[in-house]
Structure formats: structure tokens, C-alpha cells
């Protein structure tokens, strides 16, 4: 894995952590329940090989938030009652937010899945939920306690480690929904300028 790819993955994990850190500043709605996924396409040879790497299940939360109303210090308002569809190569699920779902893990072969959420008055949004290497993240966290030298040692260990021996999990899904602009709503000034420019 090159440096650019590793940095990109770290950025995704960091942003996801910030997202849930912001959510933690407010009281979240209680979960509507916990469900299991429905497995699909499990008769093909690839899945039969993949199933040998099965590492158990992880329970993740699916929540939806309003793109408007939050700022640097205030978490975005949570939206309840959005219909969300989870789609993976080998499993699917349908939930109404907020809800928790149990998903299978396959070690280093754990793959990303999509979450598509929709609710009246908001634009449909698709979010990709990707797995991350928990073992490497834990080593980085432990190394950071030792300053720069600790971080360097942790990175050296991560570079030498075999991903097949590491633990992989998903981040949660905090899907941001954008309100649909109503006819009576004022058009933002920047959009008015674009429209005037196009008409000239």
C-alpha cells in the first residue's frame, strides 16, 4: 500500500470519527431495534471461499442527520423515520432510522457497502460505509502515547504486519440528508447570480 492510499484511508477514519464525535454532543434518539442482514448471492464460488474467513458479526448504528442547523460547536439535528437500504455484494437490509444492524465480518476481505436513505422533504443520499483495520488503528493509538518515536515505531510494526492477522470492522453510518428547496423558499444569492449570468 502506497503512502497516498494509506493517508486517504486514515483521512476517512478520522472524518468518520469527527462525525460521530459531533453527534455525541447531543442526545441521540433511542434505537428502533436491532436487525440482522439478509444474505444474498451466497451460492457462488467466491462467497464459499469468502465464508471460510468469517470472523463473526458487528453491530453498527444507522442514523440520519439534517445538513442544516449544526455548526463547529453544535451537532446537526438528528432526523428520525428515514427509510434506508443497505446493499453489499452478499447482504442487504432495510431499516428505518435510527436503527442498528448486525453485519458479517471477513477479516481483511471485509468489503464496503452502501447505505441509501430517503425521507419526504429531503434529497435521497447515498453513503459508502468502508471497513478499516482496527489492529493498525489500535497500534497507532498506543504509539501516540510515546510521542513521535512511538508513532514511528507503530508505523513500522503496521508496515511489517500481515493484514490477514488483523481485525477489521466498519465505522457507523451517519447519513446527512439535505432538505429539498421549496418553491416559496428564497433562492440563495449565489444561485441567483449564476442564473443571471447564464441568461446573458
How would you sum up this structure, described in words?
α3 (134-144) packs antiparallel against α4 (147-160). The chain is α+β, with helices and mostly antiparallel strands and 200 residues long. The strands form three sheets. Strands 1, 3, 4, 7 and 12 form a five-stranded mixed sheet that branches. A five-stranded antiparallel sheet has the order 2-6-5-8-9, with no helix packed on it. The chain has helices spanning 3-23, 45-51, 134-144, 147-160, 189-199, and strands at 34-36, 38-39, 57-66, 78-79, 83-87, 91-96, 99-104, 113-118, 125-129, 131-133, 168-170, 173-177.
Concise summary:
Keywords: Signal. With 200 residues, the protein is of the alpha+beta class.
Secondary-structure blueprint of this entry?
Layout lengths: L2 H21 L10 E3 L1 E2 L5 H7 L5 E10 L11 E2 L3 E5 L3 E6 L2 E6 L8 E6 L6 E5 L1 E3 H11 L2 H14 L7 E3 L2 E5 L11 H11 L1
Helix pairs in contact: 3-4
Approximately how much beta-strand content do the residues carry?
25-35%
What is the N-to-C order of secondary-structure elements (H for helix, E for strand)? HEEHEEEEEEEEHHEEH
Strands, total number: 12
Q: Quickly give the structural class.
A: alpha+beta
CATH topology: Immunoglobulin-like
Oligomer: single chain
Keywords: Signal
Protein name: Lipoprotein
Signal peptide: 1-24
Amino acid at each position: 500500500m502506497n503512502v497516498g492510499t494509506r493517508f486517504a484511508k486514515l483521512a476517512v477514519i478520522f472524518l468518520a470519527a469527527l462525525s460521530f464525535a459531533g453527534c455525541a454532543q447531543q442526545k441521540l434518539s433511542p434505537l428502533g431495534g436491532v436487525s440482522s442482514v439478509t444474505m444474498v448471492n451466497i451460492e457462488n464460488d467466491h462467497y464459499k471461499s469468502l465464508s471460510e474467513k468469517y470472523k463473526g458479526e458487528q453491530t453498527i448504528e444507522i442514523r440520519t442527520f439534517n445538513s442544516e442547523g449544526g455548526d463547529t460547536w453544535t451537532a446537526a439535528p438528528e432526523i428520525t423515520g428515514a427509510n434506508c437500504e443497505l446493499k453489499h455484494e452478499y447482504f442487504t437490509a432495510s431499516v428505518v432510522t435510527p436503527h442498528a444492524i448486525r453485519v458479517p465480518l471477513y477479516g481483511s476481505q471485509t468489503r464496503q457497502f452502501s447505505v441509501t436513505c430517503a425521507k419526504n422533504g429531503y434529497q435521497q443520499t447515498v453513503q459508502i460505509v468502508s471497513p478499516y483495520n482496527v489492529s493498525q488503528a489500535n497500534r497507532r493509538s498506543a504509539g501516540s502515547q510515546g510521542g513521535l518515536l512511538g508513532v514511528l515505531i507503530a508505523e513500522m510494526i503496521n508496515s511489517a504486519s500481515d493484514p490477514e492477522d488483523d481485525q477489521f470492522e466498519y465505522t457507523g453510518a451517519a447519513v446527512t440528508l439535505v432538505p429539498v428547496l421549496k418553491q416559496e423558499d428564497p433562492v440563495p444569492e449565489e444561485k441567483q447570480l449564476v442564473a443571471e449570468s447564464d441568461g446573458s
